Amino acid sequence: MPTHHVFHYQEEFKLESGAVLPGFQLNYTTYGTLNPQQSNVVWVCHALTGSSDFTDWWCDLFGAGKLYDPNEWFIVCANTLGGCYGSTGPLSVNPTTLQPYFHTFPQLTNRDIVRAFDLLRKELAFERVHTLIGSSLGGQQALEWALQKPDVFERLVHVASNARHSPWGIAFNESQRMAIRQDPTWATSTEDAGKEGMKTARAIAMLSYRHYNTYNEAQQEPGHSITDNFRAASYQVYQGEKIAKRFNAYTYWLLSKAMDSHNVGRDRGGVEKALAKLKARSLFVGVDTDLLFPVEEQLFLHEHVAGSSFSLIRSNYGHDGFLVEFDQLTEAIQDFYKQEKVKEEQLNYEKQEQ
Fold this sequence. Notes:
Helix content is 40%, strand content 16%.
């Protein structure tokens, strides 16, 4: 079974903004057994409202008889810095003031977050990671991390994400934050500040996570007589209520801002120059109906990362296809590994022939 741990970092942690955290903790989950060579590590980066428990939200990828069987792999996932599933975030107590951070928690970028992840990696003494895999916000973080530590990550599986967050994506996120700001409680320093606004924010987000076809299939009304209380309307309310039970508006705000900050080309001479330095053998996966991270973004990555692979998932679920189409995603990753093995065998054959 997966095991939960807490990593404590006791020193000051300077952020890209110049702000400083007086230490932090990361809640993380491990599953499987590390082999003597430490060559079977898979590191997972979760999406915006995900947790370190990857067997919960990516259950069909991890487990006995599945793609990443714990009998063969050692899987790690840390709840992001700024999160609300055990890692230091806005609801945590600031050790300097002995009060919860709330609105005083400093703004994070993906670069800050993966630097925190890397401190955990060093604590675990992993010099190499077989596969780094992430989707959506987690895909952004995985790509950034693979660029920060090019000699650590041997393979990158980058799912439904991008190299730089788009104006379209930023506009969606700002629309959600506008909803949070409209909640009068957002001005207070309480655990539930902005909760009602976050419900609306989540409803807005669902329109970017899903697709016209998703709603048309699942929320269509039977018959022709109804004039109010539509299924689609109640579904939006349900999604808002659902997120309010497990998340907080501070972290929602903070991580949507981190997503907006994503740009691997920042201070690296631009996106193309940055991608040219990526050493990990890379697979870029897109979803054909993804409105938030459209396939053009994964194709751009594929075109600018030499020797990379690309796979297209076909789904009616839009961006959320990466959470639904497990069979296609499993096949894409298996093919990626097989192609690599074929290339290695070919190289070995050519060497013998010489």
